[in-house]
Write a structure and sequence with these properties.
The protein is of the alpha/beta class. The protein has helices spanning 49-61, 80-86, 102-112, 126-133, 138-150, 170-179, 192-195, 204-214, 240-248, 281-285, 315-327, 348-351, and strands at 12-16, 66-70, 92-97, 116-120, 156-162, 183-189, 217-221, 226-232, 269-275, 289-292, 297-299, 309-310, 337-340, 343-346. Strands 7-8-9-6-5-4-3-2-1-10-11-12 form a twelve-stranded mixed sheet, covered by helices on one side. It has a two-stranded antiparallel sheet with strand order 13-14.
């Protein structure tokens, strides 16, 4: 397993299969939707199935243990099941999707080798969902989550980006997950370094504080130094309004100790995890992933666009590029952009 200059082993890869998406989420850093007529063969600027598999075979040579397929929307690729089937057996396979095409494909994807899915769902209210995603596909997403569960892809993680427009819906999403077996919630800190609009960001510590007050059990996950909050069904049902105010407005209570309460044994339980990389050295210090873009470039960090390296056509070229990418990984992406008097600018010192 390759190790970068900061002692981090690269144990996973994220492979973007397309930058096309049938949603137009307001927080997304993508420009334009591209061709979204439905599942189709790769476009001219997208890696073919053979090219993706060739890269994964090289990654497996370096003892990479897992691959997550992403996009855009990866299910816009008609050959996704083929790619999954051809992924080296030594690698665990997962994918991130908006869920709209899972009703028709979840069973086939599970049969091909997908082990779990993350589904983007920023609210459980159809109107709020439509406002954030610029999509009327709410019911289709809900059906997609059900299809994934029926296909045995539990637990299904719901991805919710937390920013000004969605923060008030966090308590409802937490209660939704606690009340439904097989679901987990991943709250993702809004990243202005990627998507712009730094004024949309909220203080993610308010969300941590509210969850700590509400959870009956807290665990610390070694990967990325994340905290996991376990909440029993009904923990927020009678206090959704107050919870929304605590998360979305200034303030929020102090955190409580892990395992502070064990009342309510026997009720349903939901797990909530916060992905909070912005200015989080611990998060980046525990990053073990390299990324492959849809057009065949390797990068060592999600937030950087100055280190893109064409992976090459042959396995020998891919091996060399993989090694170079790992060797040039940077420590902390939270410092990639800084706020100056005239707005957010690239931090030249960070690039140096």
């Amino acid at each position: 397993m390759l190790e970068d200059g900061f002692g981090r082993e690269v144990s996973g890869v994220r492979v973007s299969l397309t930058d096309r998406c049938n949603f137009d989420c307001v927080y997304c850093h993508n420009e334009g939707l591209g061709d979204v007529r439905g599942p189709m063969e790769p476009t001219d600027d997208e890696l073919t199935a053979d090219e993706v598999v060739r890269f994964l075979e090289v990654a497996s040579e370096f003892d990479v243990e897992a691959v997550k397929f992403t996009g855009g929307e990866p299910l816009l690729r008609a050959d996704l099941e083929e790619i999954v089937r051809r992924t080296p057996e030594s690698m665990a396979v997962s994918l991130t999707t908006n869920g709209t095409m899972l009703p028709d494909r979840a069973a086939d994807l599970a049969g091909a080798g997908v082990e779990r899915v993350n589904v983007s769902q920023d609210a459980i209210d159809p109107d709020a969902f439509a406002e954030v995603t610029n999509s009327g596909a709410y019911d289709r997403v809900i059906d997609g989550v059900e299809a994934a569960l029926e296909a045995g892809l539990a637990p299904v993680k719901l991805n919710m980006v937390v920013f000004e427009a969605t923060a008030g819906y966090v308590p409802e999403m937490v209660e939704h997950v606690a009340a439904n077996d097989g679901l987990q919630l991943q709250l993702i800190e809004y990243m202005p370094e990627i998507a712009g609009h730094p004024e949309w960001a909220i203080d993610i510590e308010r969300v941590h504080d509210w969850l700590a007050e509400t959870a009956h059990r807290i665990e610390h996950r070694e990967m990325h130094g994340r905290r996991r909050y376990f909440l029993r069904e009904g923990a927020t049902a009678d206090n959704v309004t107050a919870g929304a105010e605590a998360v979305a407005a200034d303030g929020g209570g102090a955190a409580v100790a892990a395992g502070a309460s064990d009342d309510g044994a026997g009720l349903g339980e939901g797990m909530v995890e916060i992905v909070d990389p912005v200015e989080n050295e611990e998060f980046c210090a525990n990053c073990h992933r390299v990324r492959l873009t849809h057009d065949g470039k390797l990068k060592g960090c999600l937030n950087r666009h100055d280190d893109l390296r064409p992976m090459g056509d042959t396995k020998a070229e891919i091996r060399a590029t993989f090694r170079e990418t790992v060797a040039n990984r940077v420590p902390y992406y939270g410092e990639y952009m800084v706020e100056a008097d005239d707005g957010w600018v690239v931090n030249d010192a960070y690039l140096d």
